[in-house]
Design a protein that fits this description.
This protein has 335 residues and is mainly β. The protein has 2 domains: 134 residues, Immunoglobulin-like; 128 residues, Immunoglobulin-like, CATH 2.60.40. It has a 5-stranded mixed β-sheet, with no helix packed on it. A 5-stranded antiparallel β-sheet has the order 2-3-6-12-10, with no helix packed on it. Strands 15-26-25-20-21 form a 5-stranded mixed β-sheet, with no helix packed on it. This is DUF4352 domain-containing protein.
């Protein structure tokens, strides 16, 4: 090969080299794979709309309404009651059988998941009731039969619950609940939250009216000061007793035991000082310890009492029977 021929071939060889290198770069780069970033498929749904869910055994579902609650919900023999940091999201819906054969419906056939503002999930109670009753629902739906149903979800006390997911088989409905959930009843909502979705930490209560705790409905019947012997002891020198008489009504389906340890009363005096519970529960009209068992719906009258300086009145009395938020009674008028 002459020197001239070699010089002529150099550009051609350089082009082949560069082209081959470029081709190698594009064919050897591995594909980029990212797992778990795709949201589960679902249908945007609204309250009042009817959807057919499931293919193997379809059911028609309609979410009718939803509301926030700090009250007691009973399904079967189980009591659902929100703790201090919780409220209940109560769901009301219908289930309709569109098939030509009987279809069983009970709690696992539809699943409900609430999602809070921080995208945390809260599953439903795994129990459903026939609307308007505490009856645990499990039945065979006849063709074209429709039933109204209720269930509950424990959700955080603070703020709204923006999302709800309802699923059956592979079908998924997504609800935007903002502005769609019935607010807490007047007097129960924290006025600092304009949405009406955040309950007060303590629930105002009045005398002579039953209010709900977890296991009992309670009514404050009387508050008075006395120098009588209570708990086998007279008031200490310079002090008197503040006595508060309550009626307890058992609300558990299987009845309720009651004793001093079942309650957490706290008195605040007129100076705002807290007076701790003396762990005594007395019968309403006798200086005897109150303890026993009530059937569902049965009532008993009991007394709590606290020692206060003779010249100091009471301001408020709170009462709860578990981990729920307490009822708060204004007793400042007692003399």
């Amino acid at each position: 090969m002459t020197k001239t021929t070699a010089l002529c071939l150099l550009p051609f060889l350089a082009a082949l080299t560069l082209g081959g290198a470029g081709q190698a770069q594009t064919t050897t780069a591995p594909p980029r794979v990212v797992l778990g970033t795709t949201q589960q498929d679902g249908v945007a749904a609204k309250l009042g709309e009817t959807f057919t869910l499931g293919k193997a055994s379809p059911l028609n579902f309609t979410l009718l309404s939803a509301d926030y609650s700090v009250g007691r919900v009973v399904i079967g023999n189980t009591v659902y009651f929100p703790k201090v940091g919780e409220k209940l999201l109560v769901l009301h819906y219908t289930v309709h059988n569109p098939q030509s054969r009987d279809v069983r419906y009970y709690w696992p056939d539809l699943t409900f998941t609430a999602v809070d503002a921080q995208d945390r999930n809260y599953p439903f109670a795994q129990a459903v009731a026939r609307e308007g009753t505490s009856e645990r629902l499990e039945l065979n739906l006849k063709p074209a039969q429709k039933v109204q149903v209720m269930t509950v979800i424990r959700v955080p006390a603070a703020g709204v619950v923006p999302k709800l997911m309802v699923a059956r088989e592979a079908a998924l409905l997504r609800y935007d609940l903002r502005g769609q959930v019935r607010k807490l009843a007047a007097g129960l909502a924290d006025p600092a939250d304009a949405s009406g979705a955040t309950p007060l930490a303590q629930l105002p209560a009045t005398m002579n009216a039953f209010r709900s705790l977890e296991r009992f409905d309670v009514r404050l019947d009387d508050v008075q000061f006395t120098n009588d012997v209570l708990g086998g002891k007279a008031p200490p020198a310079g002090q008197r007793y503040l006595s508060a008489t309550f009626t307890l009504r058992s609300m558990e389906p299987r009845g309720s035991r009651y004793a001093w340890s079942d309650f957490k009363p706290i008195l605040k005096d007129a100076d705002g000082e807290r007076v701790e519970y003396n762990q005594m529960l007395l019968k309403a009209s006798r200086d005897e310890k109150a303890v026993g068992t009530l059937e569902a719906g049965e009532e008993v009258r009991v007394r709590f009492y606290f020692a206060l300086p003779a010249n100091v009145n009471g301001q408020s009395l709170s009462l709860t029977d578990g981990a729920g938020r307490p009822l708060l009674f204004d007793i400042s008028s007692a003399r």
